């Protein structure tokens, strides 16, 4: 069984097309000792289950001169020599030169001259050697792909004496394959840039000495020194110093983040100003950036529905084309007495024009480009399927706390009902609240600290917490109560003045939580605490509506008044309040049944059931959170909701480009094939249609590299 065999991962250099990767995969699967093999064309990797050598793998890829090396650079030195332009394209250049000699000889000596024939034949052999090698091997195995089609077409052209057009077919097909390879290389470049983010060495303090250590040799617990202007090589926590860190490489945040004692630092992030000592917490293969690279490569290998359709279509399309070409070549001469030479030529042209190069490359180049672009901008899309799903969404549900709001309560109002010293009263309230574990208590303590109000000298006696209602305690001989309306009416038996009650109701309508402060004799003040809405939430919701998201729903456990106030403030189209986690799950499931597709945006932990149940689960602020990284369909690495419109925009454009590419690839071939009816289809038209289609779909796919966050709006 493959899952019981040893697993080895290798990087492959030299893939020119998806079909070649497929051929390589099948060749490796036939090797002795190999139980199974899986090629990731997008990441240029192969995973081998079983036992084999790199030499045997390269032999399996000799049809395209593939080179294989271990996945980790430390296992094997990176190739240092980069081929020059002439070395890289020498076969195409030689083929063009020999073709030029043929054209010159034809002008001087005539087309029938031996020198002319030799020049064209040499051009075909030089330019098409790897094509013929793979195509003839496929024919012997009765395996039909684009190289099989081209091999038959070129050999047929030579047999009927169309040497000029046969040589043109070979040269342009070779150029087309190089263009395909170039476009995939451009698309993969985003991953290569991620790999280069983190340094390969770090300055480690051991036994009182500083030494440069390779990341593979750094242990958990080592103290890493990161000087100003240096990048962190490993994940860890700050144990000494403070600084601002540029985390754009990991989270996409453009503004540097302050790092102090016990704060997390990610590999690949840039220390801008301070001197930091960081305790390493993860091995190099487990760092956040390493996990992102791995997940992006796996995501790019995932076949999107459109790509799965193309793969299934091409499986039956290519043999059908060969049958069609044969019928075009033989039926008119047999049934209508037409010229054999003319219709065999037409049949060969059908083979060329029907070559599925453009169709096969149309989807993967778009998906790889989009996912790579997203990763560079701090958004991890876990596969082509989720990219397509996100591109067709019409509804998005949001968790409230920590997603649309900051998730940290703050004091918004402090109103006295009687003349007095506001700071003195706040100091007493803070002294009481500092003994409480309630989340709202921390908001009051933070407010006092920001206002530089000293409260530690206030001695509290007889402190009591009244569950669900408030607290009480004695300061300077006076008992003070802080709590909600229920504390004052149900426990203390106060008759609340209508004006005071009205003040509380006004605050609640604004989405705030009100608490009364008073003594046994009277209510002295009203404190309001609220979970502040993120500064960007309203803008994000507005952009999503502009992009084409019809429904935005806020899901929260808060009571209806608070939820409605926040919903109105941010601009969502619907608010669902008083929900438990299981209620959020039920709502998402019901919404899917009614409206088919919905995304859920949350923090990736509390909203896990609803995230899993949605078509696309989007977790935000997951940098360093391994569980959320693994489980979310889309992960916004930074705690930044503004990445969401960019993600939707990118997904929509990717889906549109994929549809355009598939439609154009099939449309241009159908149009060219219609030229067979009047007998107008030539090999020139056929190859130009094929190369032209490949050029256009690759250029169209690479447009996704230009989608930027600032252009997230329409």
Summarize the topology:
Elements: E1 7-13, H1 18-29, E2 34-40, E3 45-50, H2 54-60, E4 67-70, H3 85-88, H4 90-109, H5 114-140, H6 146-159, H7 163-195, E5 201-206, E6 209-214, E7 223-226, E8 236-240, E9 243-246, H8 248-251, E10 257-259, E11 264-265, E12 270-271, E13 276-280, H9 288-301, H10 305-336, H11 340-353, H12 357-376, E14 379-381, H13 384-391, E15 395-399, H14 400-404, E16 405-416, H15 422-433, H16 439-450, E17 460-466, E18 470-475, E19 478-483, H17 485-491, H18 498-509, E20 513-519, E21 523-533, H19 537-547, E22 551-555, H20 560-570, E23 574-576, H21 581-595, E24 599-602, H22 608-613, E25 616-620, H23 626-631, E26 634-636, H24 643-674, H25 683-702
Parallel strand pairs: 15-22, 15-24, 22-23, 24-25, 25-26
Antiparallel strand pairs: 1-3, 1-4, 2-3, 5-6, 5-7, 7-13, 8-11, 8-13, 9-10, 9-12, 14-26, 16-21, 17-18, 18-19, 19-20, 20-21
Helix pairs in contact: 4-5, 4-7, 5-6, 5-7, 6-7, 6-11, 7-12, 7-25, 9-12, 10-11, 10-12, 11-25, 12-24, 12-25, 13-24, 15-16, 19-24, 24-25
EC number: 7.2.2.21
Transmembrane segments: 91-108, 114-132, 316-336, 342-361, 657-677
Family: Belongs to the cation transport ATPase (P-type) (TC 3.A.3) family. Type IB subfamily.
């Amino acid at each position: 069984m493959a899952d019981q065999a040893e697993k080895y991962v290798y990087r492959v250099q030299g893939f020119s097309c998806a079909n070649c990767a497929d051929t390589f995969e099948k060749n490796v699967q036939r090797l002795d000792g190999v139980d199974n093999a899986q090629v990731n064309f997008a990441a240029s990797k192969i995973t081998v289950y079983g036992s084999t050598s790199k030499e045997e793998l390269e032999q399996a890829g000799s049809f395209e001169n593939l080179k294989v090396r271990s996945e980790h650079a430390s296992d094997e030195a990176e190739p240092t020599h980069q081929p020059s332009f002439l070395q890289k394209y020498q076969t195409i250049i030689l083929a063009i030169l020999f073709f030029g000699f043929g054209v010159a000889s034809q002008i001087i000596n005539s087309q029938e001259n031996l020198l002319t024939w030799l020049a064209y034949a040499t051009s075909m052999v030089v330019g098409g050697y790897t094509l013929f090698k793979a195509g003839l091997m496929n024919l012997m195995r009765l395996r039909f792909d684009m190289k099989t089609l081209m091999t038959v077409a070129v050999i047929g052209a030579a047999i009927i004496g169309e040497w000029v057009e046969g040589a043109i077919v070979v040269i342009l097909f070779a150029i087309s394959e190089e263009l395909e390879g170039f476009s995939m290389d451009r698309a993969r470049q985003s991953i290569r840039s991620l790999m280069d983010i983190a340094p390969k060495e770090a300055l480690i303090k051991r036994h009182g000495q500083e030494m440069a250590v390779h990341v593979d040799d750094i242990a958990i617990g080592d103290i890493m020194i990161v000087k100003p202007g240096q990048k962190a090589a490993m994940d860890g926590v700050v144990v000494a110093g403070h600084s601002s860190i540029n985390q754009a490489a990991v989270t996409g945040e453009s503004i540097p983040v302050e790092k102090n004692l016990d704060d997390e630092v990610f590999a690949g992030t840039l220390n801008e100003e301070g001197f930091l000592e960081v305790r390493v917490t993860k091995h190099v293969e487990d760092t956040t950036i390493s996990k992102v690279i791995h997940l992006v490569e796996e995501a790019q290998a995932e076949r999107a529905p459109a790509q799965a359709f193309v793969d299934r279509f091409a499986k039956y399309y290519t043999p059908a084309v060969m049958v069609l070409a044969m019928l075009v070549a033989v039926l008119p001469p047999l049934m209508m007495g037409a010229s054999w030479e003319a219709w065999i030529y037409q049949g060969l042209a059908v083979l060329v024009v029907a070559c599925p190069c453009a169709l096969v490359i149309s989807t993967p180049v778009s998906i790889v480009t989009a996912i790579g672009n997203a990763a560079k901008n701090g958004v991890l899309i876990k596969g082509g399927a989720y990219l397509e799903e996100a591109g067709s969404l019409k509804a998005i549900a949001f968790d409230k706390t920590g997603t649309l709001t900051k998730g940290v309560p703050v004091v918004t109002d402090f109103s006295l009902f009687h003349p007095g010293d506001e700071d003195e009263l706040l100091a007493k309230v803070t002294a009481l609240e500092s003994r409480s574990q309630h989340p709202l208590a921390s908001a009051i303590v933070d407010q006092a600290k920001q206002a530089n109000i000293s409260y530690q000298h206030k001695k509290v006696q007889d402190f009591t917490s009244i569950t669900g209602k408030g607290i009480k305690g004695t300061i300077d001989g006076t008992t003070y109560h802080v709590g909600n309306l229920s504390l004052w009416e149900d426990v203390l038996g106060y008759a609340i003045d209508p004006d005071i009650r009205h003040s509380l109701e006004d605050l609640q309508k604004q989405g705030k939580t009100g608490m009364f402060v008073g003594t046994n004799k009277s209510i002295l003040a009203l404190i309001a605490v609220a979970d502040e809405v993120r500064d960007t939430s309203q803008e994000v919701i507005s952009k999503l509506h502009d992009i084409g998201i019809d429904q935005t729903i806020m899901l929260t456990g808060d009571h209806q008044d608070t939820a409605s106030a926040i919903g109105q403030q941010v601009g969502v189209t619907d608010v669902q309040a008083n929900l438990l986690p299981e209620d959020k799950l039920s709502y998402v499931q019901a919404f899917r049944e009614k409206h088919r597709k919905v995304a859920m945006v949350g923090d990736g932990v509390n909203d896990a059931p609803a995230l899993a149940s949605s078509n696309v689960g989007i977790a935000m602020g997951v940098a360093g959170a391994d569980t959320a990284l693994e489980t979310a369909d889309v992960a916004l690495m930074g705690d930044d909701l503004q990445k969401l419109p960019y993600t939707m925009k990118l997904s929509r454009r990717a889906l549109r480009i994929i549809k355009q590419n598939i439609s154009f690839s099939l449309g241009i071939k159908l149009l060219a094939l219609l030229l067979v009816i009047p007998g107008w289809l030539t090999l020139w038209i056929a190859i130009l249609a094929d190369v032209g289609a490949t050029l256009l779909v690759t250029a169209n796919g690479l447009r996704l590299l230009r989608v930027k966050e600032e252009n997230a709006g329409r």
